[in-house]
TrEMBL record, chain A:
It comes from the Bacteria. Residues 34-126 form the Histidine kinase/HSP90-like ATPase domain. It holds the Pfam family HATPase_c. This is Serine/threonine-protein kinase RsbT. SUPFAM superfamilies: ATPase domain of HSP90 chaperone/DNA topoisomerase II/histidine kinase (SSF55874). InterPro entries: HATPase_C_sf, HATPase_dom. One of its GO terms (molecular function) is kinase activity. Keywords: Kinase, Transferase.
From TrEMBL, chain B:
The gene is rsbV. PANTHER family: ANTI-SIGMA FACTOR ANTAGONIST TM_1081-RELATED-RELATED (PTHR33495), ANTI-SIGMA-B FACTOR ANTAGONIST (PTHR33495:SF9). This is Anti-sigma factor antagonist. Keywords: Phosphoprotein. CDD domains: STAS_anti-anti-sigma_factors. Residues 18-110 form the STAS domain. Belongs to the anti-sigma-factor antagonist family. Pfam families: STAS. Positive regulator of sigma-B activity. Non-phosphorylated RsbV binds to RsbW, preventing its association with sigma-B. When phosphorylated, releases RsbW, which is then free to complex with and inactivate sigma-B. InterPro entries: Anti-sigma_ant, STAS_dom, STAS_dom_sf.
Automatic annotation (TrEMBL), chain C:
It comes from Lysinibacillus piscis. Pfam families: RsbU_N, SpoIIE. This is Phosphoserine phosphatase RsbU. SUPFAM superfamilies: KaiA/RbsU domain, PP2C-like. The keyword Cell inner membrane does not apply. The gene is rsbU. Residues 116-331 form the PPM-type phosphatase domain. Keywords: Hydrolase.
Length: 132, 110, 331
């Protein structure tokens, strides 16, 4: 297991998170298309933090056990939180902008996603992709 | 077909100018604009409808909702500059007996 | 994915060799298959990249980088595209539900026009969209009386339809008060005022035609005035009745009005969809209605209603801007 964490404060931090994500994905053996998907997912999550939560982190975990290889991306912020998590998972919510924009898109790029959020406290989004 | 709403504050009065056509499509915008108005005891709200060329019943509903809120929150609302056609709409619906309405008088403001 | 790649490789090689239209047609059909299998755009670029490397091993590194770049672009593009697709699908589901709801509303709010021995009644009610914001309710006993309520819900769509059902059940539970138009309006007003949001209201014209006494008593809650044609005087008069819309204030009172109805007299009750001519500013719709009725007064009540609808629809270039409802009662 290998874990890296990037604090998102400026747009350059988004680029850095992308870069780390791509390296890790490559190391696990994801092909170019999946690398691009993982990176785009990281980018979306980081952008949400940058735009709506101001401060937060992106954690990238590489899991390599026997017979199982996967990458875990966790976005943690202490922003305003999401009132209705179910709504954020629906398409169309993102068109209204605001916190949680693009979440359904990220969900499609990855294999699994879990959102935990408390209004006024912050949001944690954990998403994974397995190597097949 | 669109609608323009803008406000001017003068002499303890808030003037709202509404221009265009109020129908099912433009009504939500008007509703949002009116919902943003905060009532307060020292300020009258005057809505100028002299540039409203058309209004359907959805539009009427918005003014009634606004009036009901004014009633609850102790605000004063006046509608001015209504065309004969618009005035007729308020008369038929019995609203002209309830609300403060003035016909065809341009609001003078510099 | 591997199988698709093999297929794609063959097609691409064929095309590079022959460059024929047939090859391209096969490619088009292949695309259909891709869409059906929900293959993302970035995957297609990925396939192309891999195949290129196989069939033209001498491809430069720069070209491979260019493909990677395109893949990145397509991920974002595909993500947005898929969200759009999913919205379209959702919309189709909503449309379906709306259609079902509209059908239910139609069944629930179906008006049956009473067939009476001495009174001829006709009605036309045409919604502009799926859900009708107008509703007509009759209550009648042959040779004794007929009551009619013509209503228009201000506000559209589903909330209006729900409100309408409330009006209907309100009217059905009137029991013995149906003979008193102001009282009816006061009751329905209380029902609506309690349960409807601030921007939704109902206008209603309620009439009670006493067939034995030949009187028509009525009250109006913010509704378009009805018309009375007196056959004896060959004249129209407006059945003006002041009264506030239903659902605005809790304890609204309504005025009682009454006219005497003589042989061959006609009463015309309508909603504002009939008189509202959006793009004819100076046009007096009531003049048109009275002219049509006067000219065709010997037609049956139903024929008159249909004729009014046809002529007014034509006047508005077949683009009515509101639900259209007219009820005609002929003695």
């Amino acid at each position: 297991m290998f874990k890296t964490s990037v604090e998102i404060m400026t747009e350059w931090d988004i680029v850095e998170a992308r870069q780390i994500g791509r390296q890790e994905a490559k190391m696990l053996g994801f092909n170019t298309v999946d690398q691009a998907r993982i990176t785009t997912a990281i980018s979306e999550l980081a952008r949400n933090i940058y735009l709506y939560a101001e401060v937060g982190t992106i954690e990238i975990e590489r899991i390599e056990t026997e017979g199982e290889k996967r990458i875990i991306i966790t976005a943690v912020d202490k922003g305003p939180g999401i009132q209705d998590v179910r709504k954020v998972m629906q398409d169309g919510y993102s068109t209204s902008g605001g916190l949680g924009a693009g979440i359904p898109g990220v969900n499609r790029l990855m294999d699994s996603m879990v959102i935990q959020s408390n209004v006024g406290e912050g949001t944690t989004i954990k998403t994974e992709k397995w190597l097949r | 077909m669109d609608i323009i709403v803008y406000f001017k504050e003068q002499n303890q009065q808030l003037y709202g100018f509404i221009e265009g056509e109020i129908d099912t499509f433009t009504a939500p915008k008007l509703r949002d604009e009116l919902e943003n108005i905060k009532f307060n005891e020292n300020r009258d709200i005057v809505l100028d409808l002299s540039k409203v060329h058309y209004m359907d019943s959805t539009g009427l509903g918005i003014f009634v909702a606004f009036y009901k809120r004014a009633l609850r929150e102790a605000g004063q609302v006046k509608l001015v500059g209504l065309s004969i056609r618009l005035r007729r709409l308020f008369e038929i619906t019995g609203l002209s007996d309830l609300m403060d309405i003035e016909t065809d008088k341009e609001v003078e403001i510099n | 994915m591997k199988q698709l790649e093999t297929q794609y490789k063959k097609m691409l090689m064929d095309y590079i060799t022959y460059q024929s239209e047939k090859n391209l047609y096969i490619a088009q059909n292949f695309t259909r298959q891709l869409i059906q299998k929900n293959v993302a755009p970035e995957d297609v670029v990925g396939i192309h990249k891999n195949v290129m490397k196989e069939i033209l091993p001498q491809t430069s590194n720069e070209e491979q980088h260019a493909y990677d770049f395109l893949i990145e672009v397509m991920v974002q593009y595909g993500m947005t595209h898929r969200a759009h697709q999913s919205l379209l699908q959702k919309q189709a589901e909503y449309d379906m539900e709306m259609k079902i709801a509209a059908d239910i509303q139609k069944t629930l709010l179906k008006t049956i026009v009473p067939q009476l021995a001495n009174v001829d009644i006709g009605m036309v009610s045409i919604p502009i969209r799926k859900m009708n914001g107008d509703y007509v309710h009759f209550l009648a006993e042959d040779k004794k009386y007929v009551c009619v309520a013509v209503t228009d819900v201000i506000g559209k769509g589903v909330p209006a339809a729900l409100c309408m059902s409330m009006v209907k059940y309100g009217l059905e539970t009137l029991e013995y008060t149906y003979k008193e138009p102001p009282y009816v309006l006061e009751i329905i007003n209380r029902v609506i005022e309690k349960s409807v949001d601030d921007s939704m209201f109902v206008s209603m014209f309620y009439g009670y035609f006493d067939i034995q006494k030949s009187t028509f008593s009525y009250a109006s809650a913010g509704h378009e005035p009805a018309l009375h044609y007196s056959a004896k005087n060959n004249q129209f008069s407006t059945l003006e009745a002041k009264g506030l819309l239903l659902g605005v204030l809790p304890d609204t009172k309504y005025a009682f009005n009454e006219v005497t109805i003589e042989e061959n007299d006609i009463i015309i009750i309508m909603t504002d969809g009939v008189t509202e001519f959006r793009f004819h500013d100076d046009f007096n719709a009531r003049d048109l209605i009275t002219t049509i009725i006067e000219k065709n007064k010997f037609l049956s009540a139903q024929q008159l209603c249909t004729l009014l609808y046809e002529q007014i629809e034509q006047m508005q270039d077949f683009k009515l801007s509101d639900d259209f409802t007219v009820v005609i009662i002929k003695k």
